[in-house]
Design goal:
The structure is a single chain. The protein has 2 domains: about 5-250, TIM Barrel, CATH 3.20.20.70; about 295-364, Arc Repressor Mutant, subunit A (Orthogonal Bundle), CATH 1.10.10.920. The chain is about 40% helix and about 20% strand. It has 15 helices and 15 strands. Strand 7 and strand 8 form a beta hairpin. Helix 1 runs parallel beside helix 2 (about 70-80) and helix 2 (about 70-80) packs parallel to helix 3 (about 100-110). The longest helix has 17 residues, at about 30-45. It is globular.
């Protein structure tokens, strides 16, 4: 079995952002400590798997609210029996209230990648988005992480937020570039049910679809002009700073997720833990979700990448080439600039990424 990815979901947050639909709640300090203990126990059990993990991603929620010591406990436990020596280890952080000691603890225990939630560098937009820190505090957090030794830092940016314009997006992107971070994740805001934004969308001025599409293309051009190249629909990186963990998802490779709402793809099967903290704490079994990794799923995930769907990789994995009917269905999108035939196979263009859901549904 090839090396897999390990994802740990930390379901705690200081407060709920108006756009967030991830499983999270505030939580008491005692719950955070007990969750760390339970998660440590679950991690120790997976050492019996006949494989190793070469990526660890601690996401949420807001993992940084767990505290440096609890995070160190989880990382140390993973490293002891499961992770390879060269594993990529990522921790998501909210920049609010983080100090140098926090980052030093993480750096010294082997964390080598930090993901920070910026969303916007414009303070008026940040307030609407429910972010607790201002631009100066984000800058301080990034520089503090860099001082502690972290070079591989990614910032999350959000497109289509209330009142966002080309000018305000430029301000955010210029801020990212000025800090020298090598990776940007940029997501178009989607109004998810059960979020504050969804329930109160009439109160806000969201850019329409065309305006958001223009912002997306503007962002692609700006980042690439600064050497931060697009490698996936929503992800941009300097050379050799692509997220190894997330590439496992898009290459349809296997991974194990632990924690309430965490999903897994292991031994050809998909399963997940329900969005229920108490159930996970009581060691309830994950919910089975059928088989995974067939050609359609593989193609859908790989076409999220700039490199696209490779003839050689499809042949190696499935024993056949990319079906001719997919090329035939793609012709109209190729003729209109949404897709392209590459030296390796078939790929979406940046323009095509904006229509990816519709295009993938049509050709697959």
């Amino acid at each position: 079995m090839k090396n897999i990815g390990l994802y740990l979901h930390i379901p705690f947050c200081k407060s709920k952002c108006p756009y967030c639909d991830f499983y999270s709640f505030s939580g008491k300090d005692t719950e955070k400590d007990e969750y760390t203990r339970i998660l440590k126990d679950r991690i120790l059990r997976i050492s019996t798997l006949q494989c190793k993990g070469d990526t660890l991603y601690i996401g949420g929620g807001t993992p940084s609210v767990l505290g440096a010591d609890n995070l160190k406990t989880l990382v140390d436990t993973c490293k002891k029996d499961f992770l390879t020596d060269d594993a990529e280890i990522t921790v998501e952080c909210n920049p609010h209230g983080l100090n140098e000691d926090f980052f030093k603890v993480l750096y010294n225990c082997g964390v080598n990648r930090i993901s920070m939630g910026l969303q916007s560098a414009v303070d008026s937009e940040r307030r609407i988005l429910g972010r607790l820190s201002d631009r100066k505090q984000v800058e301080k957090a990034v520089k503090t992480a860099q001082k502690a030794g972290f070079e591989n830092i990614t910032l999350d940016v959000m497109l289509g937020v209330p009142n966002q314009t080309e000018k305000s997006l430029n301000e955010t992107l210029d801020f990212c570039v000025s800090l020298g971070v090598p990776h940007i994740s940029a997501y178009m805001l989607k109004l998810e049910e059960n979020t504050y934004f969804y329930k109160n969308q009439d109160k806000y001025s969201f850019p329409d679809d065309d305006a958001t599409a223009d912002l997306y293309l503007q962002m692609c051009e700006t980042l690439e002009n600064n050497g931060i190249m697009q490698y996936e629909i929503s992800n941009f990186a300097k050379i050799n700073y692509e997220s190894r963990h997330n590439l496992k998802y898009w290459h349809c490779e296997e991974y194990l997720g632990l924690g309430p709402s965490a999903h897994s793809f292991l031994n050809g099967k998909r399963f997940y833990f329900g969005r229920d903290f108490n159930a996970f704490m009581n060691s309830n079994s994950p919910i089975q979700d059928g088989n995974g990794g067939d050609f359609t799923e593989y193609a859908m995930l790989n076409l999220r990448l700039i490199e696209g769907l490779s003839e050689n990789k499809v042949l190696d994995r499935f024993g056949h080439n990319i079906p001719k009917e997919i090329y035939e269905k793609s012709k109209i999108f190729i003729d209109n600039g949404y897709m392209t035939i590459t030296e390796k196979g078939l790929a979406l263009t940046q323009k095509g990424f904006l229509m990816s859901n519709s295009i993938l549904a049509e050709i697959l």
